[in-house]
Amino acid sequence: MPSAASDDLTEAVKWYRKAAEQGYAYAQSALGDCYSDGIGVARDEAEAVKWYRKAAEQGCAGAQSALGDYYSDICRGVAGDEAEAVKWYRKAAEQGDADAQSSLGNLYLLQGKWCEGVKWCRKAAEQGDVLAQSNLAICYFDGRGVAREEAEAVKWYRKAAEQGNEEALFSLSFCYFDGRGVARDAVEAVKWWRRGIEQRRKYDKQFRELSGHVDASSGIRPIPVENSMKKIRKAADPGDADAQFNLGVRYEVRGEGLTEVSIKEAVKWYRKAAEQGSTQAQWVLGDCCEKGIGVARDAAEAVKWYRKAAEQGYAYAQCALGDCYSDGRGVARDAVEAVKWYRKAAEQGYAYAQCVLGDCCKKGIGVARDAAEAVKWYRKAAEQGNADAQFGLAIVLGGDKLPVPYTNSISDKRLIDIVEGGEWCRKAAEQGHVGAQKLLALCYEEGKGFAVARDAAEAVKWYRKAVDPLSLMERHNLAVPLLRIYEDGRSVVARDATEALETLRGFAHGTRRLQAERRKR
Question: Could you tell me what percent of the chain has a pLDDT over 70?
């Protein structure tokens, strides 16, 4: 039996078609999206191109950008033609479409037109386009189309990395390891490298061998760096713990191309440093044991090394040990002991531990339920930019004033502060926190909580941001609240069923681009 969301989509396509056949450009573009991704209709890329072209010729930027994708050979449906791709990308880019600006910039970079490439990448990057940010970083690092400036490269790598761009995560790791544009920091190097690994595994479960090489056709590649393995080994062999740890990092991050052998070699050197008391090495070795990186998975062994570093005051290890006690990994579950270690790390200023401690205080896990104490710790982490803490703080400050299901009745009503709660919710939402985005959308839709006045346009904006463009199910589910908003006549635009799914236009385009990235690996 088809789902309600599926029924909504099929019905919406019907209305799209009626409006599209009357020449309504946005309906034509939306109908193109539906055919391109098989949303509410059988997938047919030739039909998608037909409707995109009709909308593009009327000046619809989204359709122009999508047509550029087809001509640039990112998608199928028409023969590749770079000149046509540039033509349509430019039309959309000049209207301020970030996707088109990014695609146009990348196309120019691939053609070796560096100045033009940088120009359009910058426009898109400043609008938050992650691929443009990563490409702009590469241009600054290599001095292509712009003066070479490693610190500026790191700035843009960081912006892209914080949005989860794989190559930016790896490249930022290299920058920290070699001190290129930022102070040398092996721990930060490992942190960003592992985030890159996690991101890659998230989108490709078949990925097994990690590699620093990326197909040159993607326009993105890691930073080339000098290999100083011999120099570090010379210091590590006599027993220098710092050199041993750094040699382990070298093997893990770059080694022999990250084969199984090099990862095992990394663990060998981490162990040597850990046995000499290096807290960083003890923490990393514990992580390897817990996750089975270069060594057999062994939660009890992980706890052993976490504890050694934690007892020396290493905040990351204290927090990891707290997680083990919280989940019962390698040690008996003990919420009180977990809170003890979270607190030690939190008191050293570690934002993640502060956020978790806030959660414990709010829910009464391992410690007496105390909303004021939760606010205290959430605030400390929130002020460091931790989005989870910002959202948690918003929930507590919102209290019973928030819409269901976010209502949080707390004992101390004096803590409720809708204005400040709304500010923190928005900060988290702007960082991409899905829970905050959905809450903000619901507040605007219902006109309560943080959004004092009902505002359908703002509700739609935040509902759209809350959807992962790779998730077809999420995009289907999004149609329900959007249809509800439009069909109730609460939008700032005219009441029109064809408008409901027009709000999904950007997701189909984003999906094609992300899927294209995966195909290039």
Answer: 75
CA 444, CA 462: separation in Å to the nearest integer?
9
Start-to-end CA distance of the chain, whole Å, equals 37
Closest CA to 397 of 417, 377, 412: 417
Query: Does pLDDT of 266 surpass 60?
Result: yes
Rounded distance between C-alpha atoms, residue 31 and residue 15, angstroms = 10
34, amino acid identity: C
Task: Decide if 68 contacts 89 (C-beta within 8 A).
Answer: yes
- Give me the count of residues in the chain: 521
CA–CA gap between residue 223 and residue 232 (Å, rounded): 20
Q: What pLDDT shows up at residue 202?
A: 58
Mean pLDDT of the 314-339 span = 94
Q: What token pair was written down for 76? A: 């199928």
Composition of the chain by helix, strand, coil, percent to 5:
70, 0, 30
Kindly give, in sequence order, each residue whose CB lies less than 8 Å from that of residue 423, ignoring residues fewer than 6 positions away. Answer: none
One-letter amino acid of 337? E
Place of tokens 């039909």: 47
DSSP state letter for 504 = G
Phi, psi of 348, deg, nearest 5:
-90, 0
Contact between 107 and 140 (Cβ < 8 Å): no
DSSP state of 495: P
- Tokens describing residue 11: 């019905």
Distant-in-sequence contacts of 465-468, Cβ < 8 A, 24+ apart = 465/429, 465/432, 465/437, 466/434, 466/437, 466/438, 466/441, 467/507, 468/434
